[in-house]
Amino acid sequence: MSPAFRTAEPPDIEVLVAMMARFHASHGVPFPEDKSRRATLLLMGEPSAGSVRILESGTAPVGYVVLTHGFSLEFGGWHGFIDELFVEAPYRGKGFGSAAVRFAAAECRRRGMTDLLLEADLANEGATRLYRRLGFHEHPRRLMRLHVGDSLPE
Questions:
Q1: Is residue 42 part of a domain?
Q2: Buried b (16+ CB within 10 A) or exposed e, 75-86
Q3: Do the beta carbons of residue 98 and residue 104 sit within 8 Å?
Q4: Which DSSP state fits 90?
Q5: Which residue range forms the structural domain that includes residue 98?
């Protein structure tokens, strides 16, 4: 059975937050619930920035995918970024993750984007195999982060 994809709306926030907590727990990382809740609601209100889609099997939510939009001269303009992709454990290995990536790629093509980026946890070999099987390859640059709320070193 293939998942259906439904645009998440504010009333879905509790279901999404619960799945996000399981996503973070599966990676062994802390879950900033309030921050994630605010950011998800913000994205829902800014469709030009991306979208949150709920994966459904029948009418049951079984995962979600967050697709954001970015701009890069290197990639020729607008590109998509899969910020988060989660599939509930009973549905893993059944094509739901592949369907979510294909859905995101189709959405990017529909918007005239030529590239779709994502990041995979270095320890998550299953996800890495999935992404490689779907045609992703590692980019020869390192993803780095600076929290701009902090002051920069002198």
A1: yes
A2: eeeebbbbbbbb
A3: no
A4: G
A5: 4-133
